[in-house]
Amino acid sequence: MLSANHFNALANIVGNENCYSDQAHRLAYAYDATRQSYAPDCVVFPRGEADIQAILRYANEHKIPVVPRGAGSGFTGGSLSVDGGIVLALEKHFNKILEVDMENLLARVQPAVINSHLQAAVEKIGLFYPPDPASMDYSTIGGNVAENAGGMRAAKYGITKNFILALRAVLPNGEIIRAGKKTIKDVAGYNIAGLLTASEGTLAVITEITLRLMPKPKFARTAMAIFPNVEAAMNATFHSFAAGVTPVAMEFLDNLTIRAVEATYKKGLPTDAGAILITETDGNVEEDLRWQLSELERVFLANDASGFYVAQTEEERSAIWFARRNASQSLKVYGPTKLNEDITVPRARLPELLRRINEIGAKHEHQIPCFGHTGDGNVHVNVMTNKEDAVRYHKAERAITEIFEAAIELEGTLSGEHGIGLSKAPFMKLAFSEGEMNLFRAIKSALDPNNILNPGKMGL
Ligand SMILES: Cc1cc2nc3c(=O)[nH]c(=O)nc-3n(C[C@H](O)[C@H](O)[C@H](O)COP(=O)(O)OP(=O)(O)OC[C@H]3O[C@@H](n4cnc5c(N)ncnc54)[C@H](O)[C@@H]3O)c2cc1C
Q1: Percent of the chain, pLDDT > 70?
Q2: Residue of the nearest CA to atom 19 in ligand 1?
Q3: How many angstroms separate the CA atoms of 324 and 251, rounded?
Q4: How is domain 97-215 classified at the architecture level of CATH?
Q5: Cα(104)–Cα(212) distance, rounded to whole angstroms?
Q6: Residue among 224, 281, 238, 235 at smallest CA distance from 376
Q7: pLDDT tens digits for range 44-53
Q8: Are 120 and 109 in contact (CB under 8 A)?
């Protein structure tokens, strides 16, 4: 617990109205989307960079942990204060869009701007910010940078890192740094903005982000195809890209997921289908979209799709996306506890990955519905279990470990979206050698020798 002296010193920095250690604040900031709970000793709302500098200097001097926090929507416990200390809540005073530059196609924002607010603001003037995590209505751009978040449009446009031009940040010693420039090209010095991206609040507090924007494409078309098995759908995915098609999104639902959505929402989905692929194309030239769709149809049919259906109206388009958007919550038909991971492999290894997951499910007697972003090789794997049944839960945990092992063996990664945080920290040794882990630790200790910034995360 922080002493009264420490609390008063922090309140002196930010003002009493921005510093709280009451039970209600400690509880409200104890959670993220993992539903684990670690209450901080106090919650501080810095008013500007100068406050963050002063807080970090004070915390460094007294070795108090500091956890930066956006919206707390993280799926791996990144914003939880495992060692107590200070939650640095940015939502109150760091939520402004500072600049939208139409000529240079960029935006400069504070870290607690909500992703969908930025999207709406730039779309009003014909521009486009593509990264669209499913949490975009509440997650912040700072949290997106700290986790390198991605979404359905990643297949064509990439993820948060592909849009970061520059960052401002406060280091644990209180020093302000600028990393990157407004320029498209910048090869001077180390790529510090790259280092801070996906650093999960362990290296610096990001205080300003300059993002690349694009003109909003004029047209978009959505299509859906049904496949006899999941391997055929995965083959169709990578063959489509190899054929030169550039879909914005290519998403899949396997048979277990299709059946769960249908059982929950009764939308007339084909419950005997092995898999469904949903794909969207966009662009400014209608002729190009027609070519993309005809090429997708050709490749899908050549990979055993039974029919290729293109939405003709906005209602039809939303009906197609409904199944994908509601996949996650419908899975509870298979069990009360969901262990979900977001492994990613190179696209051409997807058929083998899905085969391996099926075998692991059979071996450990668990249903493992899968859906997600085939277009970028990112699969949401859901081991459906019951945490009240210790024997069964242990088997589910074994299944998760074997799924991570399979992803790494297939040249993939532990996480394509949600990061490492606390939840995946035990698996870092599967993915990285001791030498690589030591390199991470050396970087951490160079920037944060007293380990005050978000300690206990990423297996460091
Ligand atoms: C229903 C649901 C759907 C989701 N869908 C997706 C998805 O499609 N794709 C995806 O990638 N993720 C997804 N997520 C996960 C989550 O929304 C993202 O990781 C998001 O980027 C977290 O943003 P946040 O503002 O909530 O950050 P927080 O949860 O508050 O923080 C996340 C991490 O970032 C650090 N951090 C936050 N702000 C800063 C800062 N300014 N400086 C330094 N460090 C900082 C924190 O310390 C923490 O380690 C989903 C989550 C939910 C609940």
Answers
A1: 100
A2: 74
A3: 8
A4: 2-Layer Sandwich (3.30)
A5: 9
A6: 238
A7: 999 999 999 9
A8: no
Structure tokens at 139: 């997650």
Distance CA 331, CA 328 (A): 6
Average pLDDT of span 7-24: 98
- Ligand 1 closest atom vs CA 152: 8
Answering whether pTM is above 0.70, one says yes
Distance 276 CA to ligand 1 centre (A): 28
Query: Are 340 and 382 spatial neighbours (Cβ–Cβ below 8 Å)?
Result: yes
The residues, any chain, with a CB within 8 Å of residue 218's CB and separated by 6 or more, are 283, 284
Q: Which residues contact 417 (CB under 8 A, 6 or more apart)?
A: 75, 133, 147, 149, 150, 342, 378
Distance 129 CA to ligand 1 centre (A): 17
Q: What is the CATH number of domain 219-327?
A: 3.30.70.2190
Domain ranges of the chain: 4-89, 97-215, 219-327, 335-427
Q: How confident is the model at residue 1 (pLDDT cuts 50, 70, 90)?
A: confident
CATH topology of domain 335-427: Alpha-Beta Plaits (3.30.70)
Closest to 143 in 3D by CA, of 396, 450, 418, 453: 418
How many angstroms does the Cα of residue 381 sit away from the middle of ligand 1? Answer: 19
User: Nearest C-alpha to atom 27 of ligand 1 is from which residue?
Assistant: 143
